[in-house]
Amino acid sequence: VKEDGKNGVQFFNKEMKDKIYMRMELEKRLLASIENNELYLVYQPQYCSDTKQLRGFETLIRWNSPELGFVSPVQFIPVAEETKFINYMGKWILKTACAKFKKLQDKYNFNAILSVNISAVQIMEPSFVQMIKGVLEETGVHPYNLEIEITESIFISSMEYVIGVLNELKDMGINIALDDFGTGYSSLSYLQLLPIDTLKIDKVFIDSIVGKGLEKHIVGPIISLVHQLDISVVAEGVENSIQLDYLKEQRCDCIQGYIWGKPLNDDDLNKLLFQLTSG
Ligand code: C2E
Ligand code: CA
Ligand code: CA
Ligand code: CA
């Protein structure tokens, strides 16, 4: 037996071990997070850019773990996807959001869109459409009020299958939004193929809207082109008035971002709707 380290191949160094341990720990805690009541939802308002009228809310998940603290969805959603826990969690998210939305609608009598992020893993689940139908029936939310946000990652799987699923949802009256445009392999040619109603321009794109050279900025022409396809545009991550003014000028339909509203917890959501509906 050769002495340790002589050949220089160590499969697991300390750093890797820590990583693997953290990942296992995260996974274990995540799987118990729903029954332990550690997950909750926040809702970020979206407004029409010209009138500042409320368009709707994007549902965003939060996890406050007693052991791990606040964990970002950017960290735990991929774990939920790998373990398929996302199917269970996704249903919980939809159900919780719809129930909340219906309650608020009954209380404040408003019309708006409830937008929910859907993972590629969920779309591939054979019972997905049935699950959505079930939740809408159970909660009494009208399909016209629901929007699902998907990302281009869903097309890693069968494009044909996914388009079939999206068409079924669209036929029910559900709005389809393509999220994160401007990251990854965003391609305008997708837009013609997909049954989508709304395009969400990602924050990385919006971040590039700064003071200089705006007349040559690419977001303007993209908005015009998308409009020609009868698709509406939501800009995401709008933080300052340079971005807002530019987007208004370029006829971007809706604005989501800290400049007009951060994600809201239940209390703040109630307050906002009270304000908006009490004239
Ligand atoms: P996303 O779907 O692109 O969501 C938008 C993210 O941008 C949210 O981060 C939101 O809080 C943040 N944001 C919005 N406006 C601004 C702004 O003006 N400035 C800055 N700095 N940030 C802004 P969040 O909540 O941390 O979510 C991160 C990602 O995690 C989401 O990106 C989405 O991919 C995923 N995610 C969150 N909730 C869910 C969920 O319920 N289901 C699924 N499948 N994924 C989710
Ligand atoms: Ca989203
Ligand atoms: Ca996005
Ligand atoms: Ca994003």
Mean pLDDT: 93
> What percentage of residues falls in helices of 4 or more residues?
40-55%
Structural class call reads alpha/beta
List unreliable stretches of 5+ residues: none
**Basic shape:** globular
Number of strands: 9
Q: How are the strands of the largest sheet arranged?
A: 1-2-4-5-6-7-8-9
- What integer value in Å does the Rg equal? 21 Å
The number of distinct helices, counting runs of at least 4 residues, comes to 11
Order of helices and strands: HEEEHHEHHEHEHEHHEHEH
Approximate strand percentage: 15-25%
Query: Which molecules are bound in this entry?
Result: ligand C2E, calcium ion
The main sheet comes to: 8 strands, mixed, barrel
Termini gap:
82 Å
Could you give a quick summary of the protein structure above?
This protein is 46% helix and 19% strand.
List the helices and strands and how they pair.
Blueprint (H helix, E strand, L loop, with lengths): L13 H20 L5 E10 L5 E12 L3 E3 L1 H10 L2 H24 L4 E5 L2 H5 L3 H12 L6 E5 L8 H14 L2 E7 L6 H6 L4 E4 L1 H5 L11 H10 L3 E5 L4 H9 L4 E3 L9 H12 L2
Parallel strand pairs: 2-4, 4-5, 5-6, 6-7, 7-8, 8-9
Antiparallel strand pairs: 1-2, 1-9, 2-3
Helix pairs in contact: 2-3, 3-5
The structure holds ligand C2E and calcium ion (3 copies).
